[in-house]
Amino acid sequence: MDKGYSKRPVVEFHRMEFVELIKTPKVDSVVLRLPFQEPVEGTLCLTGHHLILSSRKSNSEELWLLHSNIDCLEKKFVGSTGYLTLKCKDFKTVFLEIPGMEECLNIASSIEVLSSLESVSLTYPFFFRPMFDIMEDGWQAFLPENEFARLLGEEWRLSQVNKTFEVCYSYPQTVIVPKSIDDATLLKSAAFRHGGRFPVLSYHHSPNGMVMMRSGQPLLGPNNKRCKEDERLVNAVLGIGKRGYIIDTRSAGGAQAARAKGGGVEPEAHYPQWRKLHKSIDRFYVLQESLIKLIEACTDTNSSMDKWISRLDSSNWLGHIKDVLTTACLAAQCIDREGASVLVHGSEGIDSTLQVTSLAQIILDPDCRTVRGFEALVEREWLQGGHPFADRCSKSAYTTSKPRFEGPVYLLFLDCVWQIYQQFPCSFEFNEHFLLYLFEHAYGSQFGTFMCNNEADRKKVKLSTKTVSLWSYVNRPEILQTFLNPLYEKNDGVIWPSVAPQSLMLWSGLYMRYEINQSASEDAWKEIVQIKQHDKELKLKAVKLRKQLSELQKEAVEKNIIVQ
């Protein structure tokens, strides 16, 4: 699939480091096999960042595969011919038939090294040179001071307390906090919260003025520590006589167990205006195991239907979707129907917390269901919010290495958005292709947007000046057009998704797109686009004809041809 560049991106042989890693830069007579395509014979080339196969035959499919998108490599030999199976982080599988055992081994060893470069500055985004004019700098498109401009005034302010990233390494330099709270109070609260993640504004619900905040867990520990400054900060968002809800994404038992390790949950005695709600959402490593089982089931096309469904069920992926959506709906319900503000946190506040706050905004805010609004949401909650993309997306479902910090937290969020999109297909300005695109670029990209774990790390490697933002590409009119939903009709209301088992579906357009030919659904989608376009043209024509009729009637009256 196109990763955001034309058929022939600018690819150069970079630096001596890469030359030393590429033992065999070119092999002829290599056969490429891809799902639903005829085999292609051509020349395989290795560069510092790409595996390229091109054929002299016209109209044949070329392969441009980023090394960083390769999750796992398998090799076998039959005689002197080597067979490489490249399993990618976006779930694509590439088969290569390479003549010569030595050539095959050299290609394999080079790919294994080049697909796991340790140095961030050696990755492709630092070498990518766009073949398009940058009309808007995506790095400047969603600054906090602009996104929250309408709120700044009597109740809220921008704080630069984290300007040097010393207060909270995973927060951005600028955060939105209650105006009545000074920076000294924020410092005390940060010392009382996991990772320094003191409560900050996530969302303001315009219809009733309620807010959603997010943070890390309080550090009560076994001695029940207290922080009056934190209490003051949390209570500052509540009106007189108002109550709020603390939604903890851990079970009650899990939250209490965290106290023994220095964490905990806000005690009712010190936060009397807040009611605690525990909604357990599994941690990133559990999601990783679930995704592996899901993809194993999806790629097992030889099993009986009963066994396939059993394997799908045992992965519990749809169960995770239900848990996250249920909690997001709860947060939205507290805000919109109960008229109460909400504070969301789990342990660190960088995974399940962001899933809940993001999805609650999709439910509540129609702007987040537009292309621009969704981009702003991803930027604000996930990128600036400190989700560790470099760790979580370093490996995908095919990895054979020992699990460390990887986990499909962001993918699960996108899947939840897709579920809501399926239930409200006319309420989203963007289409499924847009969600797929954002998934792909989180795992392997020529853009710098999803690199590193937080804003502090991005500043260190100067991403905004040395790489191109994904938003700079996506928001170009001709590209944006491909991501628009022709069925979209603006819906200013709150949308309430169903989490009943029969309402949740497997996202086959993602997990099975390389197992089941998607051409039929793509053709159907094209037909829908054409019908909508024809409908639009007919409506314009009807307006024009009505105008002409009105003018003719007016002229007829003036000439006494007809009596009014």
- The tally of helices reads 20
**Computed structural class:** alpha+beta
Low-confidence runs of at least 5 consecutive residues:
1-15
Work out the radius of gyration: 27 Å
State mean pLDDT (0 to 100 scale).
92
How is this structure best described in words?
- Helix content is 38%, strand content 14%.
- By secondary structure, it is of the alpha+beta class.
- It has a seven-stranded antiparallel sheet with strand order 4-3-2-1-7-6-5, with helices on one face.
- A hairpin with a 6-residue loop joins strand 1 (26-33) and strand 2 (40-46).
- The longest helix is centred in the last third of the chain and has 40 residues, at 519-558.
- The model is unreliable at 1-15 (pLDDT under 50).
